[in-house]
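A reminder from the course coordinator: this example appears on the midterm review sheet, so study it carefully.

Given structure:
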């Protein structure tokens, strides 16, 4: 299978998992030694390593989901992701670097549907036997103004 097809399928399953509220399955899209970071375009361009959300193991992603389910208090809402076609930037030794544009709509319980975030995923995948897992995902948000209700993964 072509790597772009494997990555496109992985992207579709990833956003479906989040949009359908199946957050317990979300860490399964990453390798054990993964990185996940949410940052702004300005910070990414300047090479600043800190993120609004930062995790460097799959266990940290499981902890984040557990906190969302059991500890955090936030207004119930859901997301609807709209993705562009992944652009393959580099391929070497079973690893693939790609970039994908995204738009996330937020749907609140009794309120309107709002544009919540736009940006791009800067990814590094491990692809084996047609299966693509994220080794690294940097969520680069276009705006430097991030809503305080950034609870769910992007």
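Designed residues:
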């Amino acid at each position: 299978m072509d790597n772009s097809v494997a990555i496109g399928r992985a992207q579709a399953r990833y956003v479906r998992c989040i949009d359908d509220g199946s957050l317990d399955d979300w860490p399964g899209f990453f390798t054990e030694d993964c990185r996940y970071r949410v940052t702004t375009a300005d910070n990414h361009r300047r090479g600043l390593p800190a993120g609004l959300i930062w995790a460097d193991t799959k266990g940290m992603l499981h902890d984040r989901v557990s906190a969302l389910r059991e500890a955090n208090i936030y207004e119930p809402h859901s997301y609807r992701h709209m993705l562009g076609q992944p652009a393959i930037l580099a391929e070497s030794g079973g690893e693939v670097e790609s970039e994908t544009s995204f738009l996330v709509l937020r749907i609140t319980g009794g309120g309107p549907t709002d544009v919540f975030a736009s940006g791009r995923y800067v990814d590094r995948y491990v692809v084996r036997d047609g299966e693509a897992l994220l080794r690294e995902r940097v969520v680069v948000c276009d705006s430097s103004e991030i809503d305080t209700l950034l609870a769910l993964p992007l």
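The two ends are 27 Å apart (CA to CA). The longest helix spans residues 3-19.
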